[in-house]
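Protocol step 4 of 5: obtain the predicted structure for the target chain.
Materials: sequence only (see below). No template structures provided, no constraints applied. The aim of this step is simply to have a reference model before the mutagenesis design in step 5. Sequence pasted as it appears in the construct record:
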Amino acid sequence: MTENELSYMIIGAALELHKNIGPGLLESAYENALAYDLRDMGLDVIQQVPMPFIYKEIKMDMGYRLDLVVENKIIIELKSIENLAPVHYAQLLTYLKLSNLKLGLLINFNSKTLKEGIHRIVNNI
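Step 4 output (structure tokens):
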């Protein structure tokens, strides 16, 4: 399955989740619910994936964690905040670069309509 096909499925699941629950919950609630729905769809989902920081030949375990990784192809960074800031986009792009993955989804569940809270970030490897 391609990244585009996967992202279509993920976005559909996120939209359905938001429709059923709405905004206002903690990020962890959305993370667990979305992970459940994606697994229920038959997708491989890993939560809270440790992301070491590697600089030259030094590997440092800094405590960075990817919210969700789907099929080892797409990183999902979840937020439940009033407004996304430029640093949130940069964070996901950095995670993509460090993991050598191509596509990430930044999803802010604290949006009136989730459509405005979903952003695709592409790492031009």
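Step 4 remarks: The chain has a mean pLDDT of 93. The CA atoms of residues 21 and 30 lie 9 Å apart.
Proceed to step 5.
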